[in-house]
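Translate sequence into structure tokens.
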Amino acid sequence: MIYTDGIHMVSTDSLDDLHAFAARIGLPPRWFHPAPRHPHYDLLTDDALAKALAAGARRVRPRDIIHVIRTNPALAPAGAGKAATAPPGREGRRGCVRD
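Result follows.
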């Protein structure tokens, strides 16, 4: 399931699911944040949010998305402090996403 608080977008299934959903709605890979404890995409425009919701993302309150992130092991990569995997072909130095 894909969730958004209107600003951030996460998946409870897997990072691959999150990347596939983001690609399907046309989000640039550079909007992905490979944060160790909460990998997510930022929804930087109203259009991006509208596309996410139209494609099936569930809108939740900001505190609820934090709960989703904290309670779902699929969102945290193995190994504390390790950055999440960037979309294929988009890794830069230190796991940062590049254009």
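Note: The longest strand covers residues 8-11.
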